[in-house]
Design a protein that fits this description.
The structure holds 2 protein chains of 2 kinds. By secondary structure, chain A is mostly helical. Chain A has helices at residues 8-40, 45-59, 63-78, 84-110, 113-121, 126-156, 168-179, 183-210. The longest helix of chain B has 34 residues, at 14-47. The relative contact order of chain B is 0.15.
């Protein structure tokens, strides 16, 4: 353990890099989730089929394979050479986005169709309906689910170490390869646990606050 | 510019790809079995009336669910050698996937057990069934009915998790594809087909699971 002391700073920095990657990807994933989620609940069948195809494909392929695809295969299409960080952000966003679509879809569907019909018969436009009637109620379902997805993405960020992005996992492995001890990996485990556990507690807290009709 | 998609590549490497798929499925199957065992132990701990045991069960579930799978692969394969324990890549992967999947299994089993009402247990006892007979003939079938969809999801996520075992050189599907990619530089063909492989495996598993569910529980209707 004493061997590890000089490296604690780098490990913490690794944890911040992991948080940063997952956080940025969460922003993109949320955008994807909202847009495709609305497509998935639209009345246009081909659009719904596209949304389903996206969600099903992403959920049936391991994150690692998606990362390889983005990092090694896609660049061949367009003569790009993305950095590991760019590839990691893209892959993680698309991955989280698929789960986010489901979270948004179940949120929108949790709002009864009678409310939509009432709004339509009152002459409220689609944009206003979604923004002021559906969204506030849908968020109660979507936000707790999104916290779970964020935790999943934070854990998934560890996989990006395999394409050479240096985040918490890779930092721990590098330190382990320098001092040959179990402690860096254990320290990484503690950091991951700290981040994810506090996030899941936060998620549970938010869920309690949002479930106002039960009180 | 090279040809993006090259079917001949897969025909030439068919033996390697098939063996990779076999290893992936075997790894998935063994991991499911091991995670069920861990899940059972985790549930027994968590359901225990002794505070220390239930705390331990909770600690197990929470610590596994809040840390990445990759960490366990590294801890078991690289980390344990530092303290003198060495496992083969395959066994390390089984342990890593099993011990982490076990935490999810714990929750699945716990949920299923709690879903079977206390009345059923009391009725079984009142009819003179011994506790273990009540468990086997009354509770377990209903628990399985409740847990079945969640079990299917867990099986799929374990099968997807086997791709991570490529980092410790278990010769499964992802690992073999990486090697084909590195030697031929046909990354697009290789990873596109690899993704299709996983989609196929997952879709087949899903429909198999649904078929079994219909066959076993179709008569039961939606709820227990």
């Amino acid at each position: 353990m004493a061997q590890l002391a000089p490296y604690l700073g780098i490990l913490l920095k690794g944890a911040l890099v992991t948080l940063g990657l997952a956080g940025l990807s969460l922003v993109f994933a949320s955008l994807i989730g909202v847009v495709v989620g609305m497509v998935a609940t639209s009345g246009f069948a081909p659009a719904r089929a596209f949304a389903k195809l996206y969600v099903e494909t992403i959920r049936s392929v391991p994150l690692l394979v998606q990362l390889f695809f983005v990092y090694y295969a896609v660049p061949l299409l367009a003569n790009l050479s993305p950095s590991p960080y760019q590839a990691a952000t893209l892959a993680l966003s698309v991955y989280g986005g698929a789960y986010m679509v489901e979270a948004v879809r179940s949120g929108i569907q949790s709002v009864g169709t009678d409310q939509r019909m009432a709004a339509r018969s009152l002459g409220i436009r689609y944009r206003v309906l979604m923004l002021y009637i559906v969204a506030p109620q849908a968020l109660r379902v979507t936000i707790p689910a999104a916290m779970g997805i964020f935790i999943d993405m934070l854990k998934g960020a560890s996989v990006t170490s395999i394409i050479g992005f240096v985040e918490l996992m890779q930092t721990a492995v590098n330190i382990r390869n320098t001092i040959f001890a179990l402690s860096p990996l254990v320290a990484a485990a503690v950091l991951y646990f700290g981040m994810c556990f506090s996030l899941s507690r936060m998620g549970a807290g938010i869920e309690r606050v949002l479930r106002y009709e039960d009180r | 510019m090279q040809v993006l998609f090259d079917p001949g590549l897969f025909w030439n490497n068919r033996a390697v790809i098939v063996s990779g798929a076999e290893v992936a499925l075997a790894l998935g199957a063994v991991s499911v079995a091991v995670s069920l065992a861990f899940g059972l132990v985790g549930w027994l701990l968590k359901a225990s009336k002794m505070r220390a045991f239930s705390w331990l069960g909770n600690a197990y579930v929470e610590s596994m669910r809040n840390t990445p799978t990759l960490l366990y692969l590294y801890l078991i394969y690289f980390g344990l050698t530092e303290v003198g324990v060495t496992f083969s890549p395959f066994v390390s992967a089984v342990l890593a996937l099993g011990v982490q999947g076990g935490a999810y299994m714990t929750e699945i089993i716990r949920g299923a057990f709690n879903a079977v009402s206390e009345d059923q247990r009391q009725a079984a006892r009142a009819l003179g069934l011994r506790p273990w007979k009540s468990l086997v003939y009354v509770e377990l079938p209903q628990m399985l009915r409740v847990a079945f969809p969640a079990l299917g999801n867990q099986v799929v996520s374990l099968v997807l998790g086997t791709s991570l075992a490529s980092v410790i050189a278990v010769p499964e599907l992802t690992y073999q594809s990486q090697i084909i990619g590195e030697t031929t530089y046909r990354y697009f063909s290789v990873f596109a087909v690899l993704a299709v492989f996983y989609v196929l495996i997952v879709q087949v598993l899903n429909s198999l699971w649904r078929a079994i569910e219909r066959c076993w529980f179709g008569r039961w209707g939606v709820t227990v």
